[in-house]
Predict the 3D structure of the following.
Amino acid sequence: MKRLTLAILAGLALPALTTVNATEFEQGRVINSANEFSIVPHRERIGPENRMLTDRLDNLLPALMAEQNLDMWLVINREKAEDPVYFTLVPQPTFAARRTTMLVFHRQADGTVTRETVNTYPLGGPYDSAWQGGSLDEQWQALGELIVAKNPQRIGINVSRDWSVADGLTQGMHQRLLEVLPNEFQNQLVSAEDLVVRWIEQRTEQELAVYPHIVGIARGVISEAFSSRVITPGVTTTDEVAWYIRERFSELELPIWFMPYVTFQRPGITCEEDTPFCGESGVIQRGDVLHTDVGICYFKLCTDTQEMAYVLRADEDDIPESFKSALATGNRWQDILTGEFVTGRTGNEILAATQQKARAEGILSSTYTHPLGFFGHAPGPTIGMWDNQGPTPIQGDWPLYANTGYAIEGYVKQAIPEWDNQLVQVKLEQSAYFDGSRVIYLAGRQTQWHLVR
């Protein structure tokens, strides 16, 4: 499909492709290696993670339950069928919901929230044990009695049609819950989906203190991979670079949440305006443009990062200016997007405003930005999808809140004279947070190409 056809379908006349001069963009940062950052051993991570959890339970959860007008929240799951939100609520080290695990949160008249478990195996702090021991039937009966004794008016349970992260209560356990509740309490069960989304998307001061360090490590490993320490032009393959990234994180004892991948672009590879993703795999050659996508999790917080590199030719000391201009266009697109972040505005509204301004400036772009935090693809306002540049129902209608994290993700395409005006696709993604007034990149952003010599 040609560009003119796309414009007709959109009902708009697009301007000619722009050229943005390379300049110094705000929050640009060069990170050379993950060795610039300390990595806490597994055993020593437990204390900080549990302090962050207790802070969330003490200070954030009461405010969110009041915000959503819930008197009680039940998180009920069992081993091998854990609720997605469960691991964000329990202390470390926890690897499973042993047998059947029940968490009961009850909002008091003074606004505080009690935290109790109805479990065969008590979790310990920061939870009190309301019951332990006995048969499974006795456990369910104890839960029912506890709920009746507290007499909540609105009881949130994790059932949702639209948010997978809020749909953790299985049908079988839902049925068992109904069996132990009197009819009047059954009628007070409501979906806790909004509470779950708010709980997962909201970042705290303690988390924001450590988050830049985590993102810096991810960016540092990318910098290592996109260097002559790893790449020998004409020999090294994109798959070998991807495996270097994976094994480097393994060496650092940091889990990835998806397999890293690396691709190259070069003259002759098809990259039209409507090609979703341009790039191929194979042996890396001089003159190639490289791209990678990387995500790790550390202290329960996840990153999502995409950066670009150029493999210098033998007679080059620097990347040609046309490529610098293409990256500058990508940085300008980022600025347009993040400039549209306004508290209360929906993801769909941010997307539409970004597209309008990018078109007006002649930038050929695609925006598919998503929330980030306890999950790499977290709940919250979806701001476009790579396969849908129109409104996204439900997730795109979610409003923007302060102190929430995002992967600022998308691409721009720009013609390169050195490639006979073939388009180069600059795919960018940086972990950031919105403080209520502006977007702050957690470990800076890429404003300079990685160069492989």
About this structure: The radius of gyration is 25 Å. Residues 1-16 have pLDDT under 50 and may be disordered. Residues 197 and 379 are 6 Å apart (CA to CA). Residues 42-67 form the longest helix (26 residues).
